[in-house]
Design brief:
Length: about 120
Amino acid sequence: MGLSTHVLDTMHGCPAAGMKVSLYTTQGGQATLVKSFTLNQDGRNPDGPLYDNASLKAGTYRLSFDVKGYFDAKGVALPEPRFLDQVHLDFGLAHRDQHYHVPLLVSPWSYSTYRGS
């Protein structure tokens, strides 16, 4: 299945529909944009996996999530500057024949992630 992501809004107990996300490849501290997208009603990329197994390469990647923009759009009143603005997850993929799922659980004050299935 390649690489996928899913975002859940833990403040409201729902998928983070409408959140903007960007995927980058990284190398030597440099990030190169691969694609940007807006999460669908299920909190997932509307086009499916970010990479399928055939196009996934071993290497390092970054997912950037626009947490501030998402909670602004939801009308959540928070002080400026926000505690969380952009959440950047840098991770490595060692096996291109495996599925890597990178979920994000997020509120205006915290986030967690893990390698999902």
